[in-house]
Write a structure and sequence with these properties.
Two copies of one chain form a homodimer.
Chain A: E1 10-14, H1 18-29, E2 33-38, E3 51-54, H2 60-69, E4 72-75, H3 82-89, H4 98-105, H5 107-116, E5 124-127, H6 130-140, E6 144-148, E7 158-161, H7 167-173, E8 179-183, E9 189-197, E10 203-205, E11 209-214, E12 217-223, H8 229-245, E13 250-259, E14 262-269, H9 279-282, H10 287-296, E15 307-315, H11 322-326, E16 331-335, E17 346-356
Parallel strand pairs in A: 1-2, 1-4, 2-3
Antiparallel strand pairs in A: 5-8, 6-7, 6-8, 9-10, 9-11, 9-13, 11-12, 12-15, 13-14, 15-17, 16-17
Chain lengths: ~350, ~350
């Protein structure tokens, strides 16, 4: 059954960062208002939202009022506490659904889900103790990477282990949190698929982008990616398999390692994704509008690309380059309105058009 | 001197309609916040603005607080009362400048300004009384059109006179307001130039669009327009002449009639313009961002077009066609978030991409 949002309806968004900001703008294009729920003050999304609630995810009164004021709830941030989701879901629908969140909130659950679907992931083992880590390292071998099962992003909650002797430091780095050891994958490059599934079960993918990370943070995404036709098809079919299995509604980012043996799934993110920002200037309907369309029960855009794009993240002092970018007529600037520049903070991005598709 | 707006600065916008809404979104892309001043409640721009003030242009306390809270003031609406502008300008800069407003607020002042620049306008005469109208009709001839000198838009405050016998009805239609009689121009079609001038005096124009009106309201704008290379050049040079003479800062819409004898200026609008909405999906930097760039002291975009576009206004019940447009992957939808559908009300527009430029 398709639940088509009425004109002028309000979409509640959990999380008020740059993804919420760009979702809010996309919602406005389709005639919807947004209400942002965000614990931190002065959220970037608040500058372009109809209403903001500043409250913690433990504040039941605020959560109830938020849910009552909106027509549907979505999120830009997958680590919303379960208790908050339970309460919200008892009042208004949440899209994408809870299963997508449950799967992606825990790296082990996610990997098992992907393996059950017949997809390839890096070798992995659960690590709760130093003894678990020793065992996992002897099974998987070094180099490897220890990641907390929950709440990791942009390289946070991760420790590289180049040699078994580094195990104690790695355990200290993750502060004893339940973790997973992942074996290194011998990949040539990383790509991601920004995939969407509508309420009718239709799936639409944007062309895969090729990602380069620096210090664990996405640096650039380039379309078209270096892929054979067969790899491009594999990437899209694999993403569709994930979305269909989850009965997903919305946009998902699926990160893939390209190896000689085929595509290996690195991780999935049940939301619009940094590696999909290029769609803002490469497609008529971008990933943000695609997500809103799915959540609102609208038909999805076809994912077609009119231009080739290189997306560059502006991290910390990269914002000093804005005057240079502003002079380049082939560059679209997207700033996030963050009050302070900090090292490692995503301040904005630019999409450079490199030609017609 | 170039007054470059600081990152995260706030741009005050007089008027909260769809133009303010799309200006606000463009401002957010460059990292600016907006504060909307609008007498009517629930303004479309308010859904995507940081702050809204709901107050009349006679409310001096509200005007002062608004001006104090922003870094620069611009407008989406040229009929702001002079007393409000005087007060605001004593506190913060207004861009585009007062002269542009003074010229465009009065059709006679505007026509005289254009004629003094050596440009061609329709034959015209000031009409304050029935006797003036009889004299003007005998000089200019019928058919002609009587328009109020001030506050007219979208065909409002206008009366067509096909025959001198219709003069009394025309005077009644404009309710005796100071008016201008304009002779009909024998034109093949109408085009408009969306021109921008930066604080450094640089001028940048988008490719002219070809406009079709229905019942006095813009129906479609198509790019590229039917123009010879020489006409296209004339249109752009003529627009630049107007902006330079006014020492204009921002985007202006210049409507032109194409005749066998050359281009005739219909009217100018000192703001972003409905006939420039196609730039949202045809250019990397659209008219809204171009205006914000000028106001903020940034370099202007080069006006380059990557796609051919047909913009269609959605008036009143045209919104019933949204489900049809939503299925078309070549169509970008831009809704204005207006609460009620009314006949003649601009509810949104769609940009259909008709090919690569």
């Amino acid at each position: 059954m398709i639940d088509v949002l009425a004109p002028n309806a309000t979409i509640g968004i959990l999380g008020g960062g740059q993804l919420g900001r760009m979702l809010s703008v996309a919602a406005s294009r389709l005639g919807f208002k947004t209400h942002i729920f965000e614990p931190a003050a002065n959220p970037p999304a608040g500058h372009v939202a109809d209403v903001i609630t500043t409250a913690s995810y433990e504040d039941e009164i605020a959560l109830k009022a938020f849910a009552a004021s909106v027509d549907v709830i979505t999120y830009e941030f997958e680590n919303v506490p379960t208790s908050a989701l339970d309460l919200l879901e008892s009042i208004k629908p949440i899209r994408p659904n809870r299963r997508a969140l449950a799967v992606s909130q825990d790296r082990i659950t996610e990997k098992k889900f992907l393996v059950d679907l017949g997809l390839t992931v890096a070798p992995f083992a659960a690590v709760d103790t130093a003894a678990d880590l020793d065992k996992a390292l002897s099974d998987i071998g070094a180099p490897a990477i220890l990641k907390t099962r929950r709440f990791g992003y942009d390289g946070k909650g991760q420790a590289r282990i180049m040699d078994a002797a580094e195990a104690p430091k790695a355990i200290a780095d993750v502060a004893g949190a339940p973790s997973v050891l992942e074996g290194f994958v011998d990949f040539t490059h990383e790509v991601s698929v920004i995939a969407a599934r509508g309420q009718a079960g239709d799936v639409s993918c944007f062309d895969p982008g090729e990602n380069v990370h620096t210090n664990g943070i996405l640096h650039t995404t380039t379309v078209p990616a270096t892929l054979t036709g067969a790899q491009r098809m594999d990437a899209v079919l694999l993403a569709a398999k994930i979305l269909n299995e989850l009965e997903y509604v919305g946009v998902m980012g699926v990160e893939l390692f390209v190896t000689k043996q085929g595509l290996v799934v690195n991780e999935i993110a049940p939301r619009v994704h940094n590696s999909g920002h290029w769609t803002q200037n490469g497609c008529i309907i971008d990933q943000f509008e695609q997500h809103i369309r799915a959540v609102a029960g609208w038909p999805l855009g076809d994912g077609k690309r009119h231009s080739n794009v290189e997306m560059l993240n502006l991290i910390g002092n990269d914002v000093d380059r804005i005057p240079e970018f502003a002079k380049d007529g082939s560059v679209a600037i997207h700033m996030y309105g963050k009050a302070d520049v900090k090292p490692g903070r995503k301040m904005g991005h630019v999409n450079k058009i490199t030609g017609a598709a």
